[in-house]
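Handout, page 2. Input:
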Amino acid sequence: MMKTYLIRDRLSILLVCLAGVVAVISSCTKENSKPQETTKELLATASAEITVAEGDAITFTDLSLGVVNRQWTFPGGTPSTSQLPVVDVSFSEEGSIVCTLEVEYFDGTKETTSFDIQVFPVLIADFTPSATRIKVGETVTFTDQSIGAPTSWNWEFEGGTPATSTEQNPTVTFNVNQPVTVKLTIERAADGSSVTEEKTGLIQVGPPELCLNGNFETGEGNVVDWQTWNGAPFPYTVVAGGANGTDYTSFIDFQGAWGWGQIIGRDFPDNKIALENGNDYKVSMYIRAESPIRLDVLRGVNHLPDWSPAYAGIAEDYEEFYDNSGISLPINVTTDWTKVEIRISVPDDGNSRTNFFPDIILGGDANSKVYIDEISVKIVE
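Output:
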């Protein structure tokens, strides 16, 4: 009987041990198996809600949990679609864009989110003046033609009154006798865009007829200045009795003993004339004399060396004489007013020509009072 009990006890012990082994094996199997996912969450971001067409890219980032597949859609964007978790997208057309992200979770379910993106047009500054050639003291109205719906305007007017403006379409008076530069900076508040447009020498400001029209009608003295190249200046005076019935003219006392006398309007900062490359100009004047003399030369010259009183930092240290056509010279100057006109052609070579002046050479043996009026430099349209 005792043996039987012993065998039974040993069997019990064996069964208990086997059960423990099974339990251990079962426990190990559970610990080494992959747990089933239970968390899923849709979470995505965009680095900006606004952009500019053809501007910087927006970064879209998918941070969702439990995702096995994703699909981005970017209407009008580059790229237009993507499956990447992070993607940079640029847009070429303005408008309101709805971008979407659809994700598929581990359990086969799907979820979608969207981003509203505002794409602004490219900001371009531009403007036009009501005139590009005006007299000293006249006004110009500038019309804003900018693209992209700017919300503020900042103007700068060289030589203008006012010198600056924040109006969209300002009116400005110019009291300088030179080409002037105009600059416009525009901004758009919605996205902070800013751009500047500068137009150099946009407005030619001067006496009548673009550059020069020395008609002396102010009665206040010379509207142009002259000098001679004979060792001493001519006496040069404004008097009554202008050409074409006007009130005033100017005269010089030409001395035949000089053999010739050259009148040069050159070194006078307030009367500088800037020529535009590639254009033609008419240079003309009215002339008469109390005693017969000759007009030997009428020509156009550009000269602005660094020693000139008109020099302002950019030397044009050469003399340039322009080919001209028109009246055949020399001519005999009589007591009647005679209009003399030549046409010059300015090369389109990129050179600066900011100190153009008429060059007049008189000749003959007689002493004579010579009257000159309506000295004009006028662009040929």
